Structure formats: structure tokens, C-alpha cells
Amino acid sequence: MTPRIQVGTILIEDRPLVTRILDVESESYSGNWNVVKAIDGFALDRKIHAAGWNFFFMAEEVKATVFGSLAAKNIPKALKRICLKVRKQNFNCLEVTKMVENRFLGVPYITVCAHPRHIQQGCWLDSAQERMAARQKEIQDSCGTVRSSSTDHGLDIRVVHLSSGFTPVLHCLLLPE
Question: Which of 37, 42, 47, 159 has its CA 20 to 30 A from that of 25?
């Protein structure tokens, strides 16, 4: 069953190091995003700081609009778009801050707003490149198995299966030989 999303809900990317250190209860939501259960942003912030880490809040609001009413089936569509935008910026967390239902010429639509958040050890927010490098290093450090094969087109395909006590994910890397 998909978790209920409302204003104040925190979604966190399934990353082994972060989830191991924080030890928060979460429920799988979409892709590699989980909904943090039974805790709000302030309590999560206190828990992160107690572990010696930092929880950054980005002032930039990320929005997504979808046609339909403010129903359980339309909110995931908007959140999926928001998760993609946040992921492109290499942030590992987001907080839903607003859900609004409107109409234009009688057609209902909803707008979901969220703020990217980021969990990391340092007190200065890392650049997008540093956040991506940290994510890739975390993936490499937690790999279960790596299979490699070559194709007829000169591409080396490596499938990395992550299985370190969290949601298994397959990553395919296409590298020139």
C-alpha cells in the first residue's frame, strides 16, 4: 500500500549510509524514494544533528502540476516529477510543503510544492558535483555483486546489484571499451 502523502511529509532517497546512521523508520514510496514515518522535519533535524550530521533546507521551491483533483492517485504523479527534479540536483531528501487544488475553465488540476533537503556530514553544503561523487562512492562501497559483459557495439555493460539490507537497485553503466 502506498503511504499517505500530506503537507510536511518527508521523502528520503534510499541510501545505505544515511539510513544506517539515522535509523529512521521509512516506507518504500516510488523508485528509490522512501517516506519517513512517524517523524516530522523538526524531529528528523534533531535526530540528524544528534548523529553529527547536517540537514539542509533549500529555499528554492520545486513545483509540479497535474490534471485532476486532489486525490490519492494524482499526488504520486506530481511527486514523481518533483523527485526527478530534486534528483537532478543531487539532493537526497525533500519535504512536501504545499498541495493546492484549482480549476481552469472548469478543468481541475493540482499543484504540489516541495523544498529539496539534503543530509550530509559537513556543515557547508557540497556542490552538485561533490554530492554526485559522494552518492556514487556510497553506491560503490555498498555493492553486493558486479557483473560485466561486452556487446557487439563496443560497449561494456556493468550491472551492479546492491543488496546491503536496503531496497535492491540495479544500475547499468554503459562505458566505451
Answer: 159
Residue 148 has pLDDT above 70, yes or no: no
- Residue 28 covered by a domain: yes
Same-domain pairing of 136 and 163: no
Threshold 0.85, pTM exceeds: no
In this predicted structure, what is the pLDDT of residue 151?
53
Quick one: the chain helix, strand, coil %, rounded to 5? 25, 40, 35
Alpha helices in the chain (DSSP H): 16-22, 41-50, 75-88, 128-141
Q: Is residue 97 part of a domain?
A: yes
Q: Specify the amino acid at residue 42.
A: F
Amino acid found at 28: S
**Are 22 and 174 a contacting pair, CB within 8 Å?**
no
pLDDT at residue 146 tops 60: no
Which three three-digit cell numbers place residue 114? 516541495
Task: Read off the pLDDT band of 138 (50, 70, 90).
Answer: confident
Q: How confident is the model at residue 2 (pLDDT cuts 50, 70, 90)?
A: low
Residue range(s) defining the domain that contains residue 156: 143-177
Split into its structural domains, the chain has a count of 2
Other CB atoms within 10 Å distance of the CB of residue 141 = 10
Q: In this structure, is residue 63 part of a structural domain?
A: yes
